[in-house]
Amino acid sequence: MDCIEFLNAVLKNAKYPQKKYVEAVQLGYDSVFFDEEDYVFYVGFNLGSSPLIRKEEGFLNDNDLAILNQSTSCEKNAIEYERLKNWILSTPHLILTYKRFVKSESFSPSLLIEDMRLEVISDSKISFGYAKLEDELRLVGLYDLYLKYGQWHQDLEKYGINGAKYKNYDHSYKPVPLDTLKKHFEAKPLRLAYSNVKLYFACPFSYFADRILGLNEFKPQMAARMGTFSHAVLEDSYTADFNFLESVEKHKLENAIEHRDEFFFDQMTEVLRNLLEFNHLHEQMSQLKEVEREAHIEIVKESYTFEGYIDKLMYTIKNGEVYAAIVDYKTGADKVSLDNIEDGFHLQLPSYMYLLSKYPPFTGLKLHIIGLYLQKVNIVIFDQKSDIETQMTKNFMLEGYSVANPEILSMLDPTYEKSTYIKSLAVGKAGFYKYSKVFLENQQEEIITMVDGLLDEASTGIHQGIFPIEPKKINSKNVSCTFCKYKDICFYEYEDLKELVYKPFGNGGDGHGMD
Ligand code: SF4
After folding, report:
1. pLDDT tens-digit profile of 452-500?
2. Where are the alpha helices (DSSP H) in 116-216?
3. How many other β-carbons are positioned within 10 Å of the β-carbon of residue 505?
4. What is the number of the ligand 1 atom nearest to the C-alpha of 485?
5. Could you tell me if 428 and 141 are in contact, meaning their C-beta atoms sit under 8 angstroms apart?
6. Could you tell me if residue 2 is inside a domain?
7. From atom 7 of ligand 1, which residue's Cα is the shortest distance away?
8. In DSSP terms, which residues pair with 439 in a beta bridge?
9. Integer Cα distance of 378 and 453 in angstroms
10. Considering the domain boundaries, does residue 330 fall inside one?
11. Which of 69, 249, 475, 499 has a CA 20 to 30 Å removed from the CA of 50?
């Protein structure tokens, strides 16, 4: 009795010589006769397919076939039923398996099981010892249940998990060979835009999944179609012969393709009508009378091209110097910030600044960027706190950063001291209020140089295949994974998170709205 524990331990770890078979597994059919030494595994022993049920088909129906003395589908089914029954009885070592579900569809087992009184063994009763890998998978599954829910299973007691690999899945990114990447970029030279540079810095692996593997299947959902619709009407609004209703009808026809779209597109039409009024009012006060819409700017570098579209570029040229403001229409809920731009975060507005600095019509002219803004184009849900007009106006106000130079800023917004055009912009006795989002004139060049460096850095990393799973954490908050579509494939772990120091934008001190 003393030896039992010892022998159990020895036998659990005992290794047996394994016989290697050549072509051990072969495909067969239920019309083949097998030898006594064969083991036969029949897959899909389900109602409808085992035996295969025939229906009336062809030119002649069962009545016609009976008249012509031919086999009807019923007779053929009965023959097939008997044939399969005999085959089962005559096949040695036969294991029949049936499927129960495929996705949401359920399946029934073959009627022959009941008819022949075949023994049904549930998978929990299948004994161990047939396949090492399957045994290990089952045992680690049981072990997992034990660790997570405290459910102990006797098979764990009996077999243990021994050397089975538990929780040692290696999810780290295995670099793509440089040759392969080189060929990829030869066939498709690297094109960067703000959105994919943002992905790269947030987590290089998400860029890899999205842009290199191309896992991002683009489906224009209603929100995206409504965005396209709004952008198109706003773009039209600056043409000389603009007619609001005609423009709305034209673009609605192209984008409101589903029945339920109608309601939301009608709501958005009202938003656009009011937004245009709001913009018109402020544009009349502004000195930036030139307006470019959807300005496409492309910067070609040796190893990549960076491009972007500026939804609305307002500018004027005075004494050979350009004064410009950028507005990007947003149909989502983007947060306006320039914090941690050094780490590649919040690059949208800075990348517009960069693009504008290379805009061909401004070449050779001194550029003064007055402001970089987002303008929300959303259906507004009103509350009771203030009147509808106030709420709507508040929603339309530009959100972003303005130059901290009153003289220049007033060219865009004469109301800047208590702005009715730009959100949170106000001036007190000590200068711009602390909550006003402003940048100093000399920061324009700094930001442009920083974006240039970050784009080069992203391009180098991408060309060298540096795509680790490396989400970022700022102020102990994961700022990369929340809306990432690749959570299901990266299996990131806590250790993968890279902590970044919080770097708030600006250093101008009091009176510049920067802290
Ligand atoms: S879920 Fe997080 S770690 Fe995974 S790919 Fe996305 S950003 Fe990276």
Report:
1. 999 999 999 999 999 999 999 999 899 999 889 898 888 888 899 999 9
2. 132-149, 154-159, 178-187, 194-202, 204-207
3. 20
4. 6
5. no
6. no
7. 481
8. 403
9. 34
10. yes
11. 69
pTM of the entire predicted model:
0.69
- Distance, in Å, from the CA atom of 66 to the CA atom of 72, rounded to the nearest integer, reads 6
d(CA 45, CA 67): 34
pLDDT band at 218 (very low <50, low <70, confident <90, very high): low
For residue 189, what is the enclosing H or E element?
none
- DSSP, res 210: I
Say if residue 264 is in the same domain as residue 344: no
Question: Helices 261-285 and 222-236 sit at what angle, rounded to 10 degrees?
Answer: 40
Q: How many other CB atoms sit within 10 Å of the CB of residue 424? A: 15
Structure tokens at 413: 């917004």
Residue 298 domain-assigned (yes or no) = yes
Residues 71 and 99 reside in one and the same domain = yes
Q: Indicate the residue among 63, 89, 120 that finishes a domain.
A: 120
Residue ranges of E strands in 78-144: 94-97, 101-102, 105-106
Provide the CB-side half-sphere exposure for 40 (13 A, CA). 22
Q: How many CB atoms lie within 10 A of CB 277?
A: 13
Q: Are 398 and 373 in contact (CB under 8 A)?
A: yes
Average pLDDT over residues 394-414: 93
Domain that holds residue 236: 220-285
Whether 264 and 309 share a structural domain: no
- Report the residue among 480, 489, 495, 498 best suited for mutation to probe ligand 1: largest number of ligand atoms under 8 A from its CB: 480
Average pLDDT (77-87) is 94
How far apart CA 432 and CA 514 sit, in angstroms, is: 9
Q: Which of 87-96, 257-266, 475-484, 506-515 has the lowest mean pLDDT?
A: 506-515
Two structure tokens written together for 54: 């025939």
Q: What is the DSSP letter of 179?
A: H
Structure tokens at 69: 């003395």
| Ligand 1 centroid distance, CA of 196 (Å) | 14
Ligand 1 pocket check for 481: Cβ under 6 Å: yes
Ligand 1 atom at minimum distance from 480 CA: 7
The reply to whether 318 and 428 lie within a common domain is yes
Work out which ligand 1 atom sits closest to the CA atom of 206: 5
Q: What is the DSSP letter of 124?
A: G
Q: Beta 101-102 vs 94-97: how paired, if at all?
A: unpaired
Please report which helix (H) or strand (E) contains residue 130, including its range: none
DSSP string, 6-58: HHHHHHHH--------TT------TTSPPPTT--EEEE--BTTBTTBPP-S-S
Indicate if 355 and 256 belong to the same structural domain: no
Angle at 508 between CA 347 and CA 512, to 5 degrees: 90
